[in-house]
Amino acid sequence: MTKASSVVLHKLKKELEILEAKKGRGTELVTLYIPHDKQLSDVTSQMREEYSQASNIKSARTRKNVQSALEVIMQRLKLIKSVPENGLVLLVGTIPSGIKDKIEVYMMEPPEQIMTYTYHCDSTFYLDPIRDMLEEKGTYGLLVVDRGDATVGLLKGKRIDIVKRINSTVPRKHGRGGQSQRRFERLIEIAAHEYFKRIGEHASEIFRNTPDLRGVLVGGPGPTKEFFVDEGYLHHEVMKKLIDVVDTSYTDDFGIRELVDNAKETFKDLEVTKEKDLVQRFMGEVVKDHGLAAYGEKEVRKYLQIGAVDTVLISEEVESFRTAISCANCDYAGNKTVRSLKAYEEAISSEACPKCFESSLGIDKFKSTLDEFQELAEATGAKVEVISIETEEGQQLIAFGGIAAILRFRP
Ligand code: ZN
C-alpha cells in the first residue's frame, strides 16, 4: 500500500468538504463502494433489486429520486469495463439547487483500497471510508518484547495485523548456590541470546518484506526492549526505520495495541516533522547568498519550466486559478492568476483588453494553481508538497506568498 502524496490527500480533503455539504431532501442519496474484486454483474443485480424495493417508498418524490439515482448507477456500471485497482466510489443523488433539483453524479477511484462493498442510501452521502483514508498513515512495523515472549505486528492505516508470536525458551532463574548457580546463569544468558536473535530475525524479515514501511516501533515492559534494540538484534536496515521505543505493560496482542495507542502522537508529529523539515530546508537556502531557493508564484513557475526545481512547497491556503484569456476583438491572448474564478468571470466582462482596449476579454481555460504546478513538476521530475497551516513553518510559508521551491541548481 503506497501512502498517497500530500497533493492527492489535499485534493481529496477539498473534495470531501464539498461532498459533505451535499444534502438531499429525503433519504435519497445513494453511495456505493465497490472493491476491486467485486463482480460488476453482482452489483448491477443488487441495484435492480434495490430499484424494485424502492417502489415501496411512500413519498412519491423520494421514490422517484431514489429510482433515478439507481438508474444512473446502472447506466454508469454498464460503461465500466473493470473495477480499478483501489475500487470505485459512486455517489449519486438529487441535490436541491435553487428552484430546480438536480441529479449529481460523482465517481472516483480512492487513493487507497476499498475493502468492503457498501450500498448506502441516506439524506447525505456516506463518506466515512474516505475520511478514514485521509487519516491513513501508511504501514508501520510493531514489536513488543520482554524475556517471556514477543509479538510482531503491522499497522496498516487503522488495521493491526498480528504476524508472529514468539515464545521464550529461556529457563527461569531460581536459587541454587555456588558453581552450578553460575553455570546456570551462563546457560540462561545463552538461551536469552538465542531467543532475542530469533525475535530479531523474525521481526527483521517481516519488516524488510513489507513494502512502503514507514517506520518501526518497539515496546515492552521494563528495560529488555532497550537491551534488545541496543544490542543490535534488529537488522541494520530496520534500525534505520526505528521511530521510537516505548513502554507497554504487555507483550502479547494487547501489548501491540498499547504500542499503537502510545504512538498516536508520534505519528502526528511525523507528518508535521516532514512539513517542518521541508520549510526549514527552504528557509536555510533563502538566507544564503545565491541559495537554492525561490518563492512567489511567478518565480517558482519560471524555475519549474526550466527544470531547476527539486521540490515545490505549496500552502494549503493557496486557492487560486491559472486562467488562459483571450480577446474576441483582437488577437490578444494571455494568462492570469486569480483568487476566485467566479469573481473573475464576472469582472472580466468589464475589463479592457491590454491591446485593443475593448471590453471583449473572455476566459478560455482555467486550472487550479496546484494542478498547474503539479503538471509542470511532473514534466521535470520535481516533487510537490502541500504544507498545512498548522505549524509555525506553515505560517512562514504564507509570508513567502504560499508558494516556494527548493531548487536543484541555480540557473
Ligand atoms: Zn483586444
Write up this protein.
By secondary structure, the protein is an alpha+beta fold. It has 3 domains: 6-134, Translation, Eukaryotic Peptide Chain Release Factor Subunit 1, Chain A; 139-269, eRF1 domain 2 (Nucleotidyltransferase, domain 5), CATH 3.30.420.60; 270-411, Ribosomal protein L30/S12 (60s Ribosomal Protein L30, Chain: A, 2-Layer Sandwich), CATH 3.30.1330. 42% of the residues lie in helices and 27% in strands. It contains 12 helices and 16 strands. The chain has a 5-stranded mixed beta sheet, sandwiched between helices. Strand 12 and strand 13 (333-338) form a beta hairpin. Helix 2 packs antiparallel against helix 3 (60-79) and helix 8 (253-286) runs parallel beside helix 12. The protein is flat, with a radius of gyration of 29 Å. The two termini are 38 Å apart. The mean pLDDT is 90. Zinc ion binds next to loops.
Number of strands: 16
The neighbouring-strand order within the major sheet is 7-6-5-8-9
CATH class of the largest domain, named Alpha Beta
What assembly state would you assign to the polypeptide chains in this entry? single chain
CATH superfamily of the largest domain: Ribosomal protein L30/S12
Largest sheet: 5 strands, mixed
Unreliable parts: none
Bound molecules: zinc ion
Number of helices, where a helix is a run of at least 4 consecutive DSSP H or I residues: 12
Q: What's the domain count?
A: 3
Strand content: 25-35%
- Helix proportion: 40-55%
Structural class designation: alpha+beta
- What value does the Rg take, in angstroms? 29 Å
Kindly identify the CATH topology of the largest domain.
Answer: 60s Ribosomal Protein L30, Chain: A
Series of secondary-structure elements, N-terminal to C-terminal:
HEHHEEEHEEEHEHHEHEHEEEHEHEHE
CATH architecture of the largest domain: 2-Layer Sandwich
Tell me the span between the first and last alpha carbons.
Answer: 38 Å
